[in-house]
Amino acid sequence: MRILGIESSCDETAAAVVQDGRQVLSNVIATSLEEHKLYGGVVPEIASRRHAESISGVVRQALADANCDMSGIDAIAVTYAPGLIGALLVGVNFAKGLSMATNTPLVPVHHLRSHVAANYITGDLQPPFLCLVVSGGHSHIVAVEDYTTYKVLGKTRDDAAGEALDKAGRTLGLPYPGGISIDKIAPTGDENAFAFPHPRLDTPYDFSFSGLKTAVINTVHRMEQKGETLPVADLAASFQKGVTDCLVEKLEKAATDYGYTSIALAGGVSANSRLRRETDRLCRQKGWQLHLPALKYCGDNGAMIAAQGYYQYIA
Ligand code: KG4
Ligand code: ZN
Question: How much is the mean pLDDT over the chain?
Fold first, then answer.
């Protein structure tokens, strides 16, 4: 069964054809990232306009790369939420039009469930497992009971991990997106140079990153006022340590309490090298099996939409 996946929730216009939920036949991504860099963050109106311009070409290319046309597609999967409303509308309306014109079933797919499904196209992961879903807008610990049944065990109370990294990156004068910039510069710094606060919450699997973010911003402002040179790499490394240690600690607690031994990461922040390394260390120590999405499927893409769409369609 071949599913055409369409994604337009943020700044990537993406389409892919995936066979039987696991085999990627094509994966095409157009991004307006460079334009957003000028503003230090995604400008929704610009993202929507670029989606409208690119979507026909991206879908056409995804079909061509998979060597098929719409007659070879069994269903169209499209991200319906969460995301920027104007951006989502472009993908959803394009998918609806294509579905009606070609008489092909339409499957609405939740963006975060699709991030989890990036693991299905990378390896042989099968539910049940515990997944840490960390992106620009969300930080969730999710029990994936089967391909369509999820239980959210914990989530962030304020900023998402990616959002906190992006904002800290901007404060440090690093290029957008800060998460990627911090990951790049952190290995040249001392991650123990600054001790940022580790929030203590009364709910065991929830996160909070706003205190950590404020701490780095206050540190930077204090040093600037004193005319001190900012140790950017040390600050970046220490902040990255703060964020990733919180994520791994809560993941460990949830897996232990609920008895999960199969663990996965998902979402844009799952590309972070320290998070991957520390989760790997934890899982080796505990004898748990770790699944990491391939780097090219961590960020937004159409293949993960098609993969999740496949499981929802057959369900
Ligand atoms: O999943 P994603 O592409 O889009 C959303 O659904 O939000 O995630 C984007 C987020 C951004 O905050 C970006 O800074 C972060 O993922 N990110 C990273 C890395 N690559 C992307 N954060 C840390 N380390 C990375 N290597
Ligand atoms: Zn995403």
Answer: 97
Buried b (16+ CB within 10 A) or exposed e, 128-156: ebbbbbbbbbbbbbbbbeebeebeebbbb
pLDDT over threshold 90, residue 277: yes
CB-CB contact of 87 with 46 (8 Å)? no
DSSP state of 95: H
248 in Cβ contact with 279 (< 8 Å): yes
- Give the residue, out of 112, 165, 244, with the most ligand 1 atoms within 8 A of its beta carbon, to mutate for a pocket test: 165
At a CB cut-off of 8 Å and minimum separation 6, what does 302 contact?
A: 4, 5, 6, 7, 14, 15, 16, 27, 28, 29, 58, 62
* Ligand 1 center from residue 300 Cα (angstroms): 9
The span from the CA of 267 to the CA of 82, in Å, is: 13
The two structure tokens encoding residue 135: 């992106």
List the beta bridge partners of residue 142.
131, 152
Atom of ligand 1 at shortest range from CA of 166:
14
Q: Which ligand number lies closest to the CA of residue 7?
A: 2
Testing ligand 1's pocket by substitution, the residue of 269, 295, 297, 300 carrying the most ligand atoms inside 8 A of its CB is: 269
Cβ neighbours around 107 below 10 Å, total: 25
pLDDT for the residue numbered 197: 87
- Binding site membership of 112 for ligand 1 (Cβ less than 6 Å): no
The predicted model scores a pTM of 0.97
